[in-house]
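Customer escalation, tier 2.

The customer says the design service returned an amino acid string that "doesn't look like it belongs to this structure." They asked us to rerun it and document both sides in this ticket. The original C-alpha cells are below, unchanged.
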C-alpha cells in the first residue's frame, strides 16, 4: 500500500534542474522523495527514467509522482501508457488544480524548460493537496481506459 508522504520523481536532462529544486522543497515540507533519476545534466532518453516510476504508480506502490522533461510531453506520453496512470501535463496553477479536481491525476508532468521553478513548486503543492471531486468526473475517468478496437 502506498505511503502518501512518499512522492516519486523522475526526469530526463531537460527536467533535471527542476527535479532537484522540487525534490529539495518536498523534503523541506516533510515528504520523502523516491528519485528514479536522472542524476545529472547529461543527455539521456526520458522513457528510461519515466517507465520505472510509472510502473510503480500503476501497481499502487506510489500514490503520487512528479515527472519532468524539457517540454513535459515525452514524460507524460510515456507515463500514460500504463492503465492505472493518469498523468497530467500542467503549466499553471489552475491546470494543476483541475488535474486533481476533475481528472484525479496521480502523476503531474512539468515542462522543465518552460516555467519558473517557484511556479512549479506552487503547482506541486496544489497537485498534492487538492482532492478529487468525484461525481460526474468519476464517471468520465472510468471511461478513459476503454479504447475501441
Ligand atoms: C530533450 O531534448 C527533450 O526532447 C525532452 O526533454 C522532452 O522535451 C521530450 O518530450
Amino acid at each position: 500500500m502506498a505511503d502518501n508522504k512518499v512522492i516519486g520523481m523522475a526526469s530526463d536532462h531537460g527536467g533535471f534542474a527542476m527535479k532537484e529544486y522540487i525534490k529539495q522543497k518536498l523534503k523541506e515540507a516533510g515528504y520523502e522523495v523516491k528519485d528514479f533519476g536522472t542524476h545529472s545534466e547529461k543527455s539521456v532518453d526520458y522513457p528510461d527514467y519515466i517507465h520505472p516510476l510509472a510502473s510503480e504508480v500503476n501497481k499502487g506502490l506510489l500514490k503520487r509522482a512528479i515527472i519532468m522533461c524539457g517540454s513535459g510531453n515525452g514524460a507524460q506520453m510515456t507515463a500514460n501508457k500504463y492503465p492505472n496512470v493518469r498523468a497530467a501535463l500542467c503549466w499553471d496553477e489552475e491546470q494543476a488544480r483541475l488535474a486533481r479536481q476533475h481528472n484525479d491525476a496521480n502523476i503531474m508532468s512539468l515542462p522543465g524548460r518552460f516555467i519558473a521553478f517557484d511556479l512549479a513548486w506552487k503547482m506541486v503543492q496544489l497537485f498534492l493537496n487538492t482532492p478529487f471531486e468525484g461525481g460526474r468526473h468519476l464517471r468520465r475517468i472510468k471511461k478513459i481506459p476503454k479504447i475501441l478496437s
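Tier 2 assessment: The sequence is consistent with the input. The chain has a mean pLDDT of 97. Residues 13-28 form the longest helix (16 residues). Sent an explanation to the customer and offered a walkthrough call.
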